[in-house]
Task: structure prediction
Amino acid sequence: AICHGPWTLIETGKLKGKRMTSYHSIKTDLINAGVDWVDEEVVVDHGLVTSRQPGDLPAFCAKMIEEIEEGKHQTR
Result:
């Protein structure tokens, strides 16, 4: 999920304790959902890949390819 995409994941109720990033304007909403929010180009937490903005697309796409190549991750 990139930019405002992580916002839609709040409704899952499964973000508590996840390490994520996003566009800065939704930082507070993610923190309120229990996310450990960080300001980094790309963040991975058990296969969930997040990035901040369109400028992060090269890093986001590279990480997505890496994660897909790794295959299924263990769930917690």
